[in-house]
Amino acid sequence: MGEMAHMFFGKIGIRLFYLCIAVYLYGDLAIYATAVPKSMRNVVCESSDGGGNYSSNNSSTQTNSTSDHGDKCYGLERDAVYRILVAIFAVLVCPFAFTNVQKTKYVQYLTTFLRWLCFSLMIVLALIRLGQRKGSGKPSVADFSGIPDLFGASVYSFMCQHSLPSLITPLKNKKYVTSILFMDVGVALLFYSLLSFTAVFTFSESQIEDVYTLSFKHITSSGISTFLALYPVFALSASFPIISITLRENLKSLFQKDGREFSWAVEKIVFPLFAVLPPIVIALSTTNVEMLVSLTGSYAGAGVHMLYRPC
Predict the structure, then answer these.
(1) Which helix (H) or strand (E) holds 205?
(2) Which DSSP symbol is given to 176?
(3) Partners of 76 in the β-ladder
(4) Where are the domains of the chain?
(5) What is the CATH code for 1-48+72-141+150-308?
(6) How distant, in Å, are the alpha carbons of 1, 24, 35, 72, 168 from that of 27?
(7) What are the pLDDT digits (tens) for 38-60?
(8) Nearest alpha carbon to residue 275 among 35, 53, 99
(9) Structure confidence by residue, pLDDT tens digits, 100-138
(10) Is the sign of the CA dihedral 152, 215, 86, 111 positive or negative?
(11) Name one GO cellular component term (predicted).
(12) Among the four residues 17, 43, 62, 151, which has the most C-beta atoms within 10 Å?
C-alpha cells in the first residue's frame, strides 16, 4: 500500500497515509495486548475460586464495571492480576518486534482452523440454547445510541485493505479476483451476522462480555468454555508479532527523509520500542476492549477505508 500511495499522493499525503496506517496498527496492537491478558486473567481467576464466585458475580454485573476490580484472585485484586499478565505478555511477545518473522504459513493455518472452530462453536452453542428456550436476551427494536459503536466495530471487522496488495499481486490470473473477494466478504458478513443475532437473543446485556468468547462460561461445560476463553490467547498472540513488525516498518517510512538510512540503534532498537510500548501502556491503563475497537474502527479504520480508498 505504501508503494501505491507514492503513485497517488504528494509528500504531505504520503506522510498522512503512513500516519493513518500507524494509528490503526497501534489500535490493533492495543486491542490484542488487552484481549489476551484479559482472557487469561478470567481463566486464571475462575480457576482460583472454582468458577463459582466469579460466574455468579459476572452474571449480574456488566463486564467493565466491578468485575475487573472487586473480586480477589489468588489473594490479589483482579486488575493487579491483569496487569501482571500484560507484563508477561509483553515479555514473551514484544521481542519479536526486533526480528523478522518469516515462514508463518503453518501458524496461519493453525490460527485459521482455530478461528473457524471457535466461530462455529459459539454459533452452535447459542442456537442450542435458543432451541431449548433458555435465551435471556431481549434486544430493543432499535437503539440509535449504539450507532457509533456499531460503525467502529463494523469498520474494524472488515478492515483488510492493508493486506489485499500482498494477496493479489502474486496472482498470475486476476480474472476472478473481484468475485473471490466478494464471496469472501459475503461469507465473513454471514458469520458476523449469525454470531451477532444469536448473541443478542441468547444473552442479556449484562451477560455479554466485550471479549465475546468469555460469555459462554455461563452456559456450557468447563472444557468448552475454557477453550473459547483461551482462543484469543492463541490466535491474537500469533498475530501480534506480525502486526508489530508491520507497524515498525510503517514508522520507518513515516519518519524517513529523502531516502536517508537510519543509524543502527534507531533502526534496530528505537523503532521496535516505539511500535510495542504504546500498545502495552494502553493495555495497562484499560481492560475495555469494546472501547478500543470502537475508537480504532471509527477513526483510524475509517480514515484508511475512506480517505485513502484509492490505495
Answers:
(1) none
(2) T
(3) 73
(4) 1-48+72-141+150-308
(5) 1.20.1740.10
(6) 19, 5, 12, 30, 25
(7) 999 988 887 766 554 444 444 43
(8) 99
(9) 766 666 777 888 888 889 989 999 999 999 999 888 888
(10) negative
(11) membrane
(12) 17
The region that residue 159 occupies, defined by phi over 0 for left and psi between -120 and 50 for alpha, beta otherwise, is beta
Interval 90-109: pLDDT, tens: 999 999 889 876 666 677 78
Question: Alpha-carbon distance 136 to 101, whole Å?
Answer: 45
With cell 503453518, the residue in question is: 106
Torsion, CA 241, CA 84, CA 43, CA 108, rounded to 10 = 0
109: number of CA atoms within 13 Å, CB side? 4
Chain-centroid distance of CA 62 in Å reads 20
Burial class (CB in 10 A: 0-12, 13-18, 19+), 171: exposed
Q: 162: which 3 cell numbers?
A: 492493508
Classify residue 175 by its DSSP letter.
T
Q: How many residues does the chain have?
A: 311
Bigger pLDDT: 101 or 185?
Answer: 185
Reduced to 3 states (helix: H, G, I; strand: E, B; else coil), residue 72 is strand
Cβ burial of 154 (10 Å; 0-12, 13-18, 19+) is: middle
DSSP letter for 261, please: P
Cell of 18: 503512513
Quickly state the pLDDT bin for 83 (edges 50, 70, 90). Answer: very high
Q: Which of 258, 286, 284, 253 is nearest to 271 (CA)?
A: 253
Q: Does residue 235 contact residue 36 with C-beta atoms inside 8 Å? A: no
